[in-house]
Specification:
The structure is a single chain. The protein is mostly helical and 323 residues long. The longest helix has 30 residues. It is globular. It starts with a helix and ends with a helix.
Length: 323
């Protein structure tokens, strides 16, 4: 599903609308994550007996099954493969009709330094976001907050991401300043991580929730921007390669970082020792990763190959019409 976001945007939306479409896709994804953070915290508690837990879990699984069935019915009854007419100008016909398979495209992708640098940035920033979302509850307890507080903080982060995705998407649509926005987003994420590390010991839930909102505003918004820039860097390869390749490495990185963060928390054993060492170490690693992602922006140049091909196609069409 993630790999289809840029392909669907290219199929159904005009070039200037595609980044907004991808941003809205990320917004929907973020809202789903937010709901997943909120509702379990409201209904599942550590004091639940076995029977209550079982019945509540059955209800939640039934809700998930109903949502999946609804989505399936919408896809079968309403969804169309493509619009009746192209949504906007497309690249010229000089691009080969025979698209390479994934394994044929793989060496071309790996040799493209611009895309690989973007891949590293996505890996670093998304891994921090995903790992933090998993261990946030444990970290909250380490610094004196409750599990419910952790869910609230997580929701503020996701809410910030929803708004940030739309805001940054609109800015990018107007300016086309991919690299500048990436540097701002990664740099701001680094700054907010440092502020969280310094101020979390104050024990202020409103303050931490505000910082979480600011963190989500930047971290979540990076996904649609890098998805779209990846398509530009890899052109004339298909639109689905960018999100598929980025998400593949992000998933591996998120798994490793989450496991490492969990190991640090287990090693510190807060419940027995009362030490915040595990949380302190995690809140030093995450801003360092955001800083590296920021510095990577200086190592590659932005090549808007697809946009240039579309402009070339428009010029050729205009010449044909005149003659």
């Amino acid at each position: 599903v993630i790999g289809s976001s840029t392909k669907l945007a290219a199929t159904w939306f005009a070039p200037k609308e595609r980044i907004t479409a991808i941003s809205l896709y990320v917004v929907g994804q973020s809202l789903g994550i937010a709901l997943g953070l909120v509702f379990p915290a409201l209904y599942f508690t550590s004091s639940m007996d076995k029977d209550t837990f079982k019945s509540t879990m059955e209800i939640f699984l039934g809700v998930q099954a109903a949502m999946a069935a609804t989505q399936l019915m919408l896809n079968v009854l309403i969804y169309r493969e493509k619009p009746s007419f192209p949504p906007g100008p497309e690249p010229s016909s000089e691009v080969a009709e025979d698209k390479p398979t994934f394994w044929e495209a793989f060496p071309l992708i790996v040799k493209n330094w611009g895309f690989m640098a973007i891949n590293c940035q996505f890996f670093l920033l998304q891994s921090t976001q995903n790992a933090l979302s998993v261990v946030l509850g444990e970290i909250s307890v380490v610094y004196g907050f409750t599990a419910t507080d952790g869910s609230l903080i997580g929701c503020c982060c996701i809410l910030g991401g929803v708004i940030g995705s739309v805001v940054y998407g609109k800015i990018l649509q107007r300016t086309g300043a991919y690299k500048t926005l990436i540097m701002i987003i990664a740099g701001m994420a680094c700054v907010v991580f440092v502020l969280i590390r310094v101020l979390i010991t104050l024990g202020s839930l409103p303050l931490l929730s505000t910082l979480a909102f600011a963190l989500g505003f930047n971290l979540v918004a990076i996904a649609p921007i890098l998805y779209d820039l990846g398509v530009e860097q890899l052109y004339p390869l298909g639109e689905s390669y960018s999100p598929t390749f980025l998400s593949m490495f992000d998933s591996a990185g998120s798994l490793l970082l989450t496991e490492y963060c969990s190991w640090l928390l287990d090693k510190a054993d807060f419940l027995k020792t009362g030490s915040t060492k595990g949380g302190d170490q995690i809140l030093m690693i995450l801003p360092a990763m955001a800083l590296i992602a920021t510095l990577l922006s200086f190592t590659y140049s932005v090549e808007l190959k697809r946009q240039e091909a579309i402009k070339k196609s428009q010029v050729e069409t205009k010449i044909d019409v005149e003659f």
